[in-house]
Amino acid sequence: MTTSAVPGLLTPEALSAPRLALLIDAIRADVRRGLAPEPTARLVARTLGPYLGDPGLLTAAQREGDPDRYRQHVLHAERDGSFSLVALVWLPGQHTSVHDHVSWCVTGVHEGVESERRYRLVPEGRSARLVATGDVVNPQGTVAAFAPPGDIHQVRNDGPGLAVSFHVYGADVARLGSSIRRVYDLPADR
Question: Residue 12 and residue 10: Cα distance in Å, rounded?
Fold first, then answer.
């Protein structure tokens, strides 16, 4: 994964994209309300939705994928670590591992379609297994908000073209390198 931001600073690309700066300011206002994780995620989801599909949000470089795996472009990390804004770029067939997150998260499909399989962890004696709880297809404009626990999923681009999504995390992804708390390598149903 690549990152392209200094914590708390807009990237040079973001400085040339006034719509992206407006989005970051709006997210900052939501986060500064100081609400619990779930209501914060819901507020940020409402803020992100109207920006999805806006061609002025990302530069060409921020829409570039990687032939080996999905690519992360950190667009902004708040100085105090309270949130990060990331663009994920998916080429056809690319996917995440089955994982959960370190914090609340909001996702919004900016371009293309993303598919998601959701799981829950079921204790089984001295170990556990994953049970698939649903499959969701998220077209452009779809927004989702969630907070741990219960946020285990895998995301993939099953479509024939590029998919780009925005992810807002309640953590400093530039410092952490990822929003992933745990990767699950357990037996799974489906």
Answer: 6
